[in-house]
Amino acid sequence: MNFLKKDVHFKMTSVMSIIILIMSLTLFIGCDNTTAQSNKKKSGSVQSKTKNDNAIKAPDFTLADLEGNWVSLNQLKGKVVLLNFWGTWCGPCRREIPDFIKLAKKHKKDGLEIVGVTLTSGSAKKIQGFADKWGINYTLLTDIEGNETQMVTALYGEATGQRISGIPTTFIIDRDGFIRQRYVGPRSEAVFYKDLRPYL
Fold first, then answer.
1. Cis omega before residue 98 (within 30°)?
2. What is the CA radius of gyration of the chain?
3. By C-alpha distance, which of 36, 162, 159 is closest to 92?
4. Which of 7, 176, 32 shows the shortest CA–CA distance to 93?
5. 82 forms bridges with which residues in the sheet?
6. pLDDT tens digits, residue range 69-93?
7. Are residues 93 and 6 part of one domain?
8. pTM for this structure?
9. Strand bridging mode 70-72 / 179-184
10. Are residues 117 and 21 in the same domain?
């Protein structure tokens, strides 16, 4: 009888340990390379769809730029948009900034617009200081009334069926407003350009 009690106790302890381990790992998903690696397979799922086979229309949204001007995605229709969810505090996000700067310099004339939705990074003034220091030459949007950026994050997670749980998360949106690619984790200028080129 004691043996059965010990066996049941051992099994319960093992199950609890596994549950605690899974919960701990879930808490660490986010701004890191493991998120990027684990989602590489998922990142191509949107790209394979075309307008004729249920391509996902990018949800419209309106957010403020760092000067307080309202910018909506619909205003950019006719351009190829690289929509980047990021934060000033996120190391992998910072790694992408020089690549975005190069892409903006080289391809803005071809209709490329890079838009950074800046998450939990402080005031517009603080973000502007960061942008000036890094030489950011593309549009940054942020919260000015509350948690608008989190609402946009939730909107894109719902639209694509893949919650945005880590940053950077980036979308290529074509000239007609359809999502063509989704990336989780940082990518290089070469990778972005290879996927952007068919739409420029």
1. no
2. 20
3. 36
4. 32
5. 114, 172
6. 999 999 999 999 999 999 999 999 9
7. no
8. 0.76
9. unpaired
10. no
